[in-house]
Amino acid sequence: MLKDLIKLNRSYRKFYEAEININTLKELIELAKLSPSPRNLQALKFIISNNKKTNNNIFEQLAWAGYITDWNGPEKGERPSAYIIILGDKNLSDNFERDFIYTASGIVSQSILLGAIEKELGGCIIAAIKKNKIKEILNISDDLEILLVIALGKPKEEIIIERVKNNDIKYWRDENEAHHVPKREIEELIIKIID
Ligand SMILES: Cc1cc2nc3c(=O)[nH]c(=O)nc-3n(C[C@H](O)[C@H](O)[C@H](O)COP(=O)(O)O)c2cc1C
């Protein structure tokens, strides 16, 4: 069921470092291809990597789990096996705000991550990126803007969904390293019912 996939599709930040085949990554881009696109511009482009050296370089440019202040991201041996960099193509849109290109990057991210979950993989959307460094490392031309990075791997993390209490939305880790994610109840999300 879709709800089960969405429940399983948490932001995973620790992984078994199992290899992810390039064809698997291409299958995930197929899901991005089929996702909705504002004005059907299809202005998103992708860089996929399962290369260890490149992955290490990408990893250094990412910030992980800002609320967990005593943790700087996954240790060696628990890092992502692959990355998908989502880029906006300035040749296809000269105004990313007006053309909802940022929104589109979120939509394809969810498609990609749900596809990953179906393949017993998982990952995390990362927006806290040193974009200039990644641009340099991957030799990305000026007509492409880095929007998001999706880190992927075989999840090695227990994640528990909680209710938001006292309006505190910060995720936390318990003494057993389980990651707790508070979610607001739908009664708080639906502000008006018109039936
Ligand atoms: C657009 C976007 C950007 C995000 N950027 C980061 C990030 O830079 N680093 C990070 O560790 N998590 C990032 N996340 C993951 C969120 O922290 C995560 O979705 C949130 O804590 C809720 O957890 P859940 O995905 O398991 O529901 C991002 C999520 C989204 C949707």
What does this structure look like?
It contains six helices and eight strands, in the order αβαβαβαβαββββα. By secondary structure, the protein is an alpha+beta fold. It has two domains: 155 residues, NADH Oxidase (3-Layer(aba) Sandwich), CATH 3.40.109; 38 residues, putative fmn-dependent nitroreductase like fold (Single Sheet), CATH 2.20.180. Strands 1, 2, 3, 4 and 5 form a five-stranded antiparallel β-sheet that branches. A hairpin with a 5-residue loop joins β7 and β8. α2 crosses α4. It is globular and about 45 Å long. The mean pLDDT is 98. Bound molecules: flavin mononucleotide (FMN). Flavin mononucleotide binds next to β4.
Characterize the overall form: globular
Q: How many domains comprise the coordinates?
A: 2
- CATH class wording of the largest domain: Alpha Beta
The ordered string of helix (H) and strand (E) elements is: HEHEHEHEHEEEEH
Bound molecules: flavin mononucleotide
Radius of gyration: 17 Å
CATH topology of the largest domain: NADH Oxidase
Structural class: alpha+beta
Q: How many beta-strand elements?
A: 8
> Which runs of at least 5 residues are low in confidence (pLDDT < 50)?
none
| Number of discrete helical segments | 6
Query: Distance N terminus to C terminus?
Result: 27 Å
Mean pLDDT: 98
Strand percent estimate: 15-25%
Proportion of residues in helical segments: 25-40%
CATH architecture of the largest domain: 3-Layer(aba) Sandwich
Name given to the CATH homologous superfamily of the largest domain: NADH Oxidase
Largest sheet: 5 strands, antiparallel
